Amino acid sequence: MPIERQRAQELDHMVRKMGTIVSVFEIRCDPVGNKSFKAFRDLMDVYVDACGKTLAADKDFMDEGIDLDADENLRERLRAAFESVFGVAPGAI
Question: Domain spans of the chain?
Answer without folding.
Answer: 5-86
